[in-house]
Amino acid sequence: MRRQILMELCRHPGNFVSGKQISESLGVSRVAVWKHIEALKAEGYDIQGVTGRGYKIAELHNIIIPEDVEKNLSTRIIGRELYVFKEVDSTNQVARKLLRDNRAGEGAVIVAGRQTGGRGRRGRSWESPVGGLWFSLISRPGLALSETALLSLVFAVAVSRALEKFVAQPVLLKWPNDIYISGKKAVGILLEMSGELDKAEYLITGIGINVNLPVSSLGSAGELATSLQEESGQPLEMSRVLAEVLNFLEKYYLFFLEHGFSSILNEFKARCWHLGQDIKVEANNRVLQGRNIDIDESGSLLLDTGDKMERLTTGDVALIKRGGV
User: For residue 259, what are the contacts with CB-CB under 8 A and spacing of at least 6?
Assistant: First the structure.
């Protein structure tokens, strides 16, 4: 019933809806409407109530509305099983629980309005306030772990393509899977795999997109981060952004399964802003410097240090020259 009431408020953006109108529409008492409204407020929804006028929900653009997501989906698999939460510790954690309980299939998506314990690579915390798009995708590609890991780069290309629908600036990549706009980070991607070396049992892809976040809300990361709202100059509908991203994720996922990574590699390299540049890489408790001369078909970064060629499978990249990220 709470979701039905929430949907009723969302059908009238920016306007008050009377308790009487909601009760008649849903066939419940006005007292029941009031109780459910209070429960929604306790869950964190910004609902205003004015005597004689009714209720109005604020910041509608930041709410994931499953019906709106479904309306804009062109996928067959990804996002057809959609779990939406107002707040969770971590969408990846919810995904793991759903898998343990055998409740999530191929393409299931778990999305939250806010994460209280989001994590990035190497266990770093990931700021996940309201206004960001925080979700996890469950997939079962049936590939060896080494091949499955390439989806990190594949999905980065897919998300960058989707975000170009919302900003005029180029959306670029930092190896292996960070997404940058105007020289600042806008998206992070984290993969969690389980299985044997010759076959991954499942893959959980956690994706965090700064959508309607002012830089001031990102704390210490604000100087190095940006959002779609900052770049476009206007807030965006979260449901539409999610649907567009899921559409591109499925397109690239299925293409990768059929044709392999080599068919997507050139697009990744065309978007990689540090390719051919002098960079510093922190990897495996080492700090290496040199020129990034290539990304190979295994997804590894090739670094010419001047003394030798290093082939890196993971690491944090930064430009050496002034003005780099």
Answer: none
